[in-house]
Design a protein that fits this description.
Blueprint: E1 5-10, H1 20-36, E2 41-43, H2 61-77, E3 84-93, E4 96-105, E5 108-114, E6 138-142, E7 145-149, E8 153-157, E9 163-169, H3 179-185, E10 188-195, H4 203-218, E11 221-226, E12 243-246, E13 249-253, E14 262-267, H5 268-277, E15 290-294, H6 317-342, E16 346-350, H7 355-371, E17 378-382, H8 390-403, E18 406-409, H9 413-423, H10 432-453, E19 455-459, H11 463-468, E20 481-482, H12 489-502, H13 506-516, H14 536-540, H15 543-555, H16 560-570, H17 577-593, H18 595-598, H19 627-634
Parallel strand pairs: 1-2, 2-3, 8-15, 9-10, 10-11, 16-17, 16-19, 17-18, 19-20
Antiparallel strand pairs: 1-14, 3-4, 4-5, 6-7, 8-9, 11-12, 12-13
């Protein structure tokens, strides 16, 4: 459970109706399989020791006694293991019959959790046999030992920094106010659901949505194990639709009618971070619960879950296109509102022939169309200097012409040379002053043209550059509206590609495709043989790595060692571990050292769940120290 990962299992044994002895053997086989695969929370279906479809046989004393014997057998199968196991059976207490989950560990029965909501509608008639459980926790004498019995029981696991596990049964999740909601508010990070949900047309879609949405609303990991093969098909069919979800994302899902056991690694540390982040998630009612301590050894879970190499970019083409259209709409409406508010009628954009300025110009054109303004009110300024190549300059000019913007080409070599002379900067000294002097000259020109035309300077820098501080302070760092400030570099590329694919303009598409094929570069150093000599990713590292680091640091709150671990897993075969570690150190160093640039960012639209605006998601002091983050990486 290092880094908060715990392997969980949802198991569907093949049972025989009303044959607890046989079913116990199948459950024991399932426990052995799950433990061998490293599962530490193992959930079986509702009433699986007898079968859910026993009907009036539940009233037979012999069946209940044999179910208790089967429970003893299942408990013995957990001996020597610290896995937490949830098994379903009928249990009589005080003259009433209850549908319960028995919670087992290391040969012992830790608790009985009864079902709260007993359905008696449509195909269900459970009230004929079972009484509803209540929240008050009492005692049940099982084999001479008093065992907690009640709904309000949580299991406190000491591993992974400590977390709570709650339990509910089938119909409970379908109720308007489910026990799992109260469990989560009392602190439960993981919920086990023992279910026997029959199959009807379309029910699987709703069931998966229900589990996924419950995990999202409660900020929990949710393990749903459902009855399957072996149940009676007299009137109903059970498909064994097992689901494991985490905070709104389905981690694993069984194919129905396949008797498929599923496994997934739930990240309790991420859930804890999400709850810390959301001020509206307020813990309450903890005193109404009985807390059962559970010891688990702290080991390193062998991960089976994957982490997308580009977490900002959906893998699925349809979802990616939908995401691109949505982001373009957010950017467009943000800029449109700024123009409506200011009453200004023109825009000034520095176009370099690179991805960021291309995206800014495309969005500005869309906004002007929406405002009913002529596109020739957009002034696209290209400012070649010492490092500009013909390729990027030509693309900038073609792009402006194709979109109908006014193009101004202003060569800044002479003005920058004069400036260097004024400050005593040698032309042969190609240091940071040499580079930044060009960037600031460009920004001054843009600002002054905007004053002359009565417009706004539209910023082109993206969120990845802001995270790394890869922007010249008071140079390209500054604008009157930072249109791309919420868009990471990996997503900028897909936005431009989406525009190329959907623009229905052959000339524009051709220009955009060449922009996409151009290496990312600030072009501040002279080219070599006419080609770009300065590649950004050679200097600060691959943007796909930095966007990966940025997402899991800000969105998930992962510590550096955990980010390194999942990055090595995600980029295996692409980057060596030492390369990943090198750029991760670079990321943390730059992220902390460059906060002062983010503390004074111009306005710009947030488009996703990660943002670096000092007025929004990232209230970070400019003088924060990175030492503890970097020290953890040194210890790897």
């Amino acid at each position: 459970m290092k880094h908060g990962f715990i392997k969980t299992a949802a198991m569907t044994p093949r049972i025989r109706v009303a044959d607890p002895e046989y079913n116990a053997k199948e459950v024991c086989r399932g426990i052995g399989e799950a433990c061998a695969k490293g599962a530490r929370i193992i959930v079986f279906p509702e009433l699986c020791l007898t079968g859910y479809t026993c009907g009036d046989l539940f009233l037979q004393e012999l069946l209940l006694n044999k179910a208790a014997d089967a429970l003893r057998t299942a408990a013995e199968a957990t001996e020597g293991s610290d896995a937490l196991v949830f098994v379903g059976l009928p249990l009589e207490k005080d003259g009433k019959l209850y549908d319960v989950a028995a919670v087992l560990q290391n040969g012992e029965v830790l608790a009985f959790v009864p079902k709260k909501f007993i359905p008696s509608y449509a195909e269900f008639y459970e009230t004929r046999h079972f009484a509803p459980g209540c929240g008050t926790v009492g005692k049940y004498l099982f084999d001479g030992k008093e065992v907690p019995f009640g709904i309000n029981i949580l299991f406190e696991v000491d591993a992974a920094g400590g977390f709570l596990v709650g339990c509910e049964i089938c119909e409970d999740i379908w109720a308007p106010c489910s026990p799992s909601t109260m469990h989560a508010l009392a602190g439960a990070a993981v919920i086990a659901n023992l279910s026997a949900s029959d199959e009807t047309v379309g029910k699987d879609t709703y069931r998966e949505m229900l589990v996924r949405s419950s995990s999202a609303k409660q900020i929990t990991g949710y393990i749903y194990a459902s009855a399957g093969e072996g149940e009676s098909t007299q009137d109903l069919v059970f498909g064994g639709h097992n689901i494991i979800a985490e905070n709104g994302v389905t981690l694993a899902q069984a194919k129905r009618f396949a008797a498929e056991n599923i496994y997934a690694d739930i990240d309790v540390h991420r859930l804890r971070h999400e709850r810390r982040r959301m001020s509206t998630f307020v813990s309450e009612n903890r005193e109404a619960y009985t807390i059962v301590p559970v010891h688990m050894e702290e080991d390193e879970t062998q991960l089976t879950r994957t982490f997308a190499q580009q977490p900002f970019v959906p893998d699925d083409r349809a979802k990616r296109d939908q995401r691109c259209e949505e982001i373009l709409a957010i950017q467009t409406y943000g800029l449109k509102k700024r123009y409506e508010h200011t009453g200004l009628k023109s825009a000034v954009i520095g176009v370099s022939g690179g991805l960021d300025s291309t995206l800014a110009l495309l969005v500005t054109a869309r906004a002007f169309d929406m405002l009913g303004l002529e596109r020739n009110r957009i002034t696209a300024v290209t400012m070649p200097c010492f490092g500009t190549t013909d390729r990027t300059c030509n693309n900038a000019c073609r792009l402006a012409a194709t979109l109908g913007a006014e193009l101004r080409k202003i060569d800044i070599k002479e003005s920058v040379t004069v400036h260097f002379k004024d400050i005593g900067q040698s032309m042969d000294n190609r240091d940071v002053t040499y580079e930044n002097g060009q960037a600031r000259e460009r920004t001054q020109i843009l600002m002054d043209i905007a004053n002359r035309t009565g417009g706004l300077v539209i910023g082109t820098g993206d969120m990845s550059e802001l995270a790394l501080g890869w922007a010249t302070y008071n140079g390209d760092h500054m604008s009157m509206y930072g249109l791309n400030s919420g868009v990471p570099k990996t997503l900028v590329r897909h936005l431009v590609q989406y525009y190329a694919d959907t623009c229905d303009n052959a000339e524009l598409r051709m220009v955009l495709l060449d922009v996409l094929d151009t290496p990312v570069s600030p072009e501040l150093l002279p080219p070599v043989n006419g080609t770009i000599s300065q590649r950004t990713e050679d200097l600060v590292g691959p943007y796909e790595l930095h966007d990966f680091f940025l997402y899991y640091m800000l969105r998930c709150g992962f510590e550096p060692a955990k980010i390194y671990r999942i990055a090595c897993r995600s980029f295996q075969g692409i980057y060596d571990k030492d390369v990943i570690l090198k750029w991760l150190k670079t990321f943390y160093h730059r992220f902390f050292a460059q906060q002062f640039k983010r503390s004074c960012l111009p306005d710009g639209p947030k488009v996703g769940s990660v943002a670096v605006s000092p007025r929004g998601d990232l209230r970070m002091p400019s003088d924060a120290c990175a030492s503890i983050w970097l020290k953890e990486l040194e210890e790897l």
